[in-house]
Every structure is written in structure tokens, then in C-alpha cells.
Write a structure and sequence with these properties.
- It is globular, with a radius of gyration of 18 Å.
- The chain has a single domain, classed as Metal-dependent hydrolases (TIM Barrel, Alpha-Beta Barrel), CATH 3.20.20.140.
- The protein has an 8-stranded parallel β-sheet with strand order 1-2-3-4-5-6-7-8.
- Strand 5, helix 5 and strand 6 form a beta-alpha-beta unit.
- By secondary structure, it is α/β, with parallel strands linked by helices.
């Protein structure tokens, strides 16, 4: 892979630019991961390495997201957040919906502002899964409302579609990772993507869409087939979009965070829109 020093950004990040979705992984002897049903072998991706990348990209705010490999043991991420400090970071955890109030209060104090609802993007269709998730989602919605947190969804596209009525009814802010896992090959007229466009402008406009994991939706060099989707979202709701590197890219480790960042230069030529995506919108959602 190309080193950070050899890669360049195509535009200057605005002040207080935020990476709204990335992961850290520590030494396995200190932070053991769940070995059953892992989709990837977690790499060693320490905080210092990530901060070097963020500096090269011009990013000064960071939103840690709990990786599935650690299950609901958030200790690696929380330790890293303490090292960074609440002035510059926020976190999205994976917790039991009935976790003690004291645990959530401790997390809030160091910058946690969201809870992840995570189902593998490649999970095959499973009858009844959406219905079985509703009690957890509703309970987490209540907890988030009490704390001023949001919900962060990573779901396969079919599950997003089945949960759409639940998402529309949410009374707390929420985000959809990886553009709702709408495959680029299906285009902007696909029912799932049209529903996503409608979701970001529905009701009190509580939905946010993450420009993350682009390599999950596209298999074309340069990801050019994602351009129509990204541009449609920018046209529909530029104030409800956020960007994340998805570092360290896990099973897509051959990808470059610089290339993913530079997609914003192709998707919009407006500095004002890039400032919304990188600074204004994450500031609103995460409470910077």
C-alpha cells in the first residue's frame, strides 16, 4: 500500500473536519476479540496509527465506532477515547439494551453519544429477523432519548427495507452506515435507495446517511458507479450527510482512506457542501 506521505488530498479539509466512522484494534492479549463467526481477522490498528492518518487528511475530530469483533466489550475503544479526550472525539458503542444507567453515565462522560445496531452487511435474508429486532430498537430508542444519544444502524439492504417503517417512526436522531447498503449496480431508481432518499427528508428529519464503506457497494475501480447515488443524496439532503473513513477497512484493507476522502471532490465541487458533510453535520449529530 502507498504510505500516507505519498498520498494527497484533492481539497483542504475545512476547520474541525470530522471522521464520523472508524475503528481501533489493540493487542489481542489486552483486548481479546470474539473468535466465533468473525468475518475478518482483526488487524492491529492502534490509535497512534489512526491519528497519523487523520492528521494527513486534515481531520481533527474523530468518532470511534465499536467494531463487531469486540462484541459488547467496548474497552479498547473507550480506552482510546480517554487518550484523545472529549474535546476531539465521540464514540458509538454496542451495549445491551438494558445496560445499567451507571454504565451509560460513565460512557457519556468520556464522549459516547450513540449506540450501534449492527447486523452483518452480507447477512442473507432471514424471515422474522426484522420483527425480532424491534423490541431492542425501541428500548434503545428510549435510553438514547434520555441521554441525548442517537442510534447508528449498519444493516444489509434487505433488512433496512424491512425495518423502514420502524426507522420512520423513531423519535431520536439516527444514522445509516454505508449509504444504507444500497448496491451501486442497482442505481438511483432502486426501491431501497428511493426509500432512503425519502427517509432523510421525512418528518422531523432525524435520519443521517454516512458516506462510508463505499467499497461494500461498488466493485468498480474508482467507485464511479456510486457517483449517481452520492450526488442524489447531496442534492436531496446535504445537511443530513456525514463522512467516515471506515479505517482500517478490515476485509477491504487494500483500499486507501485518501481515495475515499477524495471522492468528496468528485461528488461535489462546492466547498460549502463539503463543510456541511465534514464539519457542520457531524457537529450537530455528535454534539461537538
Amino acid at each position: 500500500m502507498t504510505s500516507h506521505a505519498e498520498e494527497k488530498t484533492l481539497f483542504a479539509a475545512p476547520p474541525d473536519a470530522c471522521d464520523a466512522h472508524f475503528h481501533v484494534f489493540g493487542p489481542i492479549e489486552k483486548y481479546p476479540y470474539e473468535s466465533s463467526q468473525l468475518r475478518y481477522a482483526p488487524p492491529l490498528a492502534p490509535l497512534a496509527e489512526y491519528l497519523g492518518l487523520a492528521k494527513s487528511l486534515g481531520l481533527t475530530r474523530y468518532v470511534f465506532v465499536q467494531p463487531s469483533a469486540y462484541g459488547r466489550d467496548n474497552s479498547c475503544m473507550l480506552d482510546a477515547m480517554k487518550d484523545v479526550g472529549i474535546a476531539h472525539c465521540r464514540g458509538i458503542v454496542d451495549i445491551d439494551e438494558n445496560a445499567p444507567d451507571s454504565m451509560l453515565a460513565g460512557m457519556h462522560a468520556i464522549g459516547v453519544r450513540g449506540v450501534r445496531v449492527n447486523v452483518s452487511p452480507v447477512h442473507p435474508h432471514q424471515t422474522g429477523l426484522a420483527v425480532s429486532m424491534i423490541p431492542r430498537i425501541k428500548r434503545l430508542e428510549t435510553r438514547c432519548a434520555e441521554l441525548g444519544w442517537h442510534l447508528d444502524f449498519l444493516l444489509p439492504g434487505w433488512l433496512t427495507a424491512e425495518l423502514m417503517p420502524v426507522l420512520r417512526a423513531l423519535q431520536v436522531p439516527f444514522s445509516m452506515a454505508h449509504m444504507g447498503m444500497n448496491l451501486a449496480r442497482d442505481g438511483v431508481d432502486a426501491p431501497g435507495f428511493k426509500a432512503l432518499l425519502d427517509l432523510v427528508n421525512s418528518g422531523d428529519r432525524l435520519a443521517y446517511v454516512k458516506f462510508t464503506g463505499i467499497y461494500r457497494m461498488s466493485k468498480i475501480t474508482g467507485f464511479t458507479d456510486t457517483d449517481p447515488l452520492a450526488k442524489a443524496l447531496i442534492e436531496a439532503a446535504p445537511d443530513r450527510l456525514i463522512w467516515g473513513s471506515d479505517y482500517p477497512h478490515l476485509s477491504f484493507s487494500e483500499n486507501s482512506s485518501f481515495e475515499l476522502f477524495n471522492l468528496l471532490a468528485r461528488w461535489t465541487t462546492k466547498d460549502s457542501v463539503r463543510r456541511q458533510i465534514l464539519t457542520d453535520n457531524p457537529s450537530r449529530l455528535f454534539g461537538f
